[in-house]
Design goal:
By secondary structure, this protein is mainly alpha-helical. The protein folds into two domains: 195 residues, Preprotein translocase SecY subunit (Orthogonal Bundle), CATH 1.10.3370; 243 residues, Preprotein translocase SecY subunit (Orthogonal Bundle). It is 68% helix and 6% strand. It has 19 helices and six strands. Strands 1, 4, 5 and 6 form a four-stranded mixed sheet that branches. A hairpin with a 2-residue loop joins strand 2 and strand 3. It is globular. The two termini are 33 Å apart.
C-alpha cells in the first residue's frame, strides 16, 4: 500500500496516470455511441448466437463495439494493419528503410504515413462492414429482425464516415496516451477492450456452473490452466539470454578505466505481443474483402470461420513468421556489435566486428525459436478450452497474452518513474523482484 501511495506523491506520474485513465474512459464511453441507421438490439441477438466464432473474436478485439454497432466498431485494427504494411514495406523499400534509420524525425514521417494508411483502410473496411450489416437483414429466417433500417448507398456512405471518424479518433487517443500518458497507448486501448469483456465472461461461466453446463471439477481444471498460462506467459516474457560483456582497460593520464564486466540481455520474446496482434489483424481482413465479393474471399472467410486444424496451422505459421520478422526489424546485431566496438567492449572469446555480430545473431535466432513456439502454443489455448470445456473465449490465448504482456509493460513504466525519483518500486522494496530469467 505504501508503494501505491508513492505513485500519487509524484506529480508527473499522477498526472500521466489520471490522463491515461481519462482517455480510456472516453474510449469506453464511445463504445456505446451507435452508428446511425442500425438496430443494435438485433445485432446483440445475432452476436449472442455467434459466441466463440470468428465474429466473436472480432467483437473481442473491438471491445464489444461490434455487437453495439458503435462508431468504434472497426476498433484500432486498421491502425494495426497499416503498421503491418509499413513495417513490411520498410524491409523492401529503401526510402522507408532510410527513414527508419533517421531516428525520431524519420519515425515521425513513418507515423504520418501510418495515419494516412489507417484512414484509407478504415474507408475500405467501413464500406465492407456496411455491406456485411445489410447482408444480416433477415438472417436466420428473420427471427432476429433487420439490422439496417434503410439499406443502400446512403447508409453505406454514412457508415463509412462514422466508422472512419471513430477509428481516427481512437488512433488519436492512443497517440495522446503514448505522448502525455503512461505510454503504449495503442496496446492499452486493445487491453481495455479485452478486459472490458472479462466480467461478463466470468458471470456467464458462473451461470453455466449453476445450471450444470460446466461441472465444478471442470471449472477448477480450467482455473488451474488459466493460472498456469499466466505464469507461463510471465516466465517467458521476463526470460533473457545474458551474454557476458568485457570492457577493455585503457589508461588516461595516471588513471586506468575499464576492465569491468557486464552483460548484454537478449529477450526470449523480443517481439512482445505484436506477432499475435498482427496475425489476428490479417485474419480479420478477408471479412472486409468478402463484403466486396472479391473472388475467393468468401471461401477464405468460411475457412477462417471454421476454426479447425487448418486454421490453427495457418494461425501458428503466421505467429512464427511475424515473431522472426518483427525481431529482425527491431533488433540489429550489426548495430549492436558496432556500439560495443565504439564502447571498447567485447564478448570474451569473440573477435569484435563481424564475428561479434554473427555470434549475437546466432544466439538471437536460437532464443527466438523458443519465443515463437511459446507464443504459438499460448495462442491456441482458447480453442482447446472452448471446444473441451465450453468456456468463453476470454480464458487464455491471444487475449490473455495481450493482457499480461501489456500489464507487465505498464508496471515497468510505473517502476521506472518510481525508481528514477528514489521511491520503492511496485515489484519490491529493495529493487525489482521481477527480474529477467536466463534462458
Amino acid at each position: 500500500m505504501s508503494t501505491i501511495a508513492n505513485i500519487f506523491k509524484i506529480a508527473e506520474l499522477r498526472k500521466r496516470l489520471i490522463f491515461t485513465l481519462t482517455m480510456l474512459a472516453i474510449y469506453r464511453v464511445g463504445i456505446f455511441i451507435t452508428t446511425p441507421g442500425v438496430d443494435r438490439n438485433v445485432m446483440q441477438d445475432i452476436m449472442a448466437a455467434q459466441s466463440g466464432t470468428f465474429l466473436g473474436m472480432f467483437n473481442l478485439f473491438s471491445g464489444g463495439a461490434l455487437e453495439q454497432l458503435s462508431i468504434f466498431a472497426l476498433g484500432i485494427m486498421p491502425y494495426v494493419s497499416a503498421s503491418i504494411i509499413l513495417t513490411l514495406m520498410s524491409a523492401v523499400v529503401p526510402t522507408l528503410e532510410e527513414l527508419r534509420k533517421e531516428g525520431e524525425s524519420g519515425q515521425r514521417k513513418i507515423n504520418q504515413y501510418t495515419r494516412y494508411g489507417t484512414v484509407g483502410l478504415s474507408i475500405v473496411q467501413s464500406i465492407g462492414i456496411s455491406m456485411f450489416l445489410e447482408g444480416l437483414n433477415g438472417s436466420d429466417g428473420g427471427q432476429y429482425g433487420d439490422v439496417v433500417a434503410n439499406p443502400g448507398w446512403g447508409f453505406r456512405l454514412l457508415t463509412m464516415i462514422s466508422l472512419t471518424t471513430g477509428t481516427a479518433f481512437i488512433m488519436w487517443l492512443g497517440e495522446q496516451i503514448t505522448e502525455r500518458g503512461i505510454g503504449n497507448g495503442i496496446s492499452l486501448i486493445i487491453f481495455a477492450g479485452i478486459v472490458s469483456g472479462l466480467p461478463d465472461a466470468l458471470f456467464q461461466t458462473t451461470a453455466q456452473v449453476r445450471i450444470g453446463q460446466i461441472q465444478p471439477i471442470s471449472l477448477l481444471l480450467v482455473t488451474g490452466i488459466v493460472f498456469g498460462v499466466v505464469a507461463f506467459i510471465v516466465f517467458f516474457e521476463r526470460a533473457q539470454r545474458r551474454i557476458p560483456i568485457q570492457y577493455a582497460r585503457r589508461v588516461v593520464g595516471r588513471q586506468m578505466y575499464g576492465g569491468q564486466t557486464s552483460h548484454l540481455p537478449l529477450k526470449v520474446n523480443a517481439a512482445g505481443v505484436i506477432p499475435p496482434i498482427f496475425a489476428s489483424s490479417l485474419l480479420m481482413f478477408p471479412q472486409t474483402l468478402a463484403g466486396f465479393n472479391v473472388p475467393g474471399m468468401q471461401y477464405l472467410q468460411d475457412f477462417i470461420a471454421a476454426r479447425d486444424w487448418r486454421y490453427v496451422i495457418v494461425f501458428v505459421a503466421m505467429i512464427i513468421f511475424f515473431t522472426f520478422f518483427y525481431t529482425a526489424i527491431q533488433f540489429q546485431p550489426v548495430q549492436v556489435a558496432d556500439n560495443l566496438k565504439k564502447q571498447n567492449a567485447f564478448i570474451p572469446g569473440i573477435r569484435p566486428g563481424k564475428a561479434t555480430a554473427d555470434f549475437i545473431d546466432a544466439v538471437m535466432t536460437r532464443i527466438t525459436v523458443g519465443g515463437a513456439l511459446y507464443m504459438a502454443l499460448v495462442c491456441v489455448v482458447p480453442d482447446f478450452l472452448q471446444q473441451t470445456f465450453r468456456v468463453p473465449f476470454y480464458f487464455g490465448g491471444t487475449s490473455i497474452m495481450i493482457v499480461v504482456g501489456v500489464a507487465l509493460d505498464f508496471v515497468q513504466q510505473v517502476e521506472s518513474h518510481l525508481i528514477t525519483r528514489h521511491y520503492e518500486g511496485l515489484t519490491g522494496p529493495r529493487g525489482p523482484r521481477i527480474r529477467g530469467r536466463q534462458a
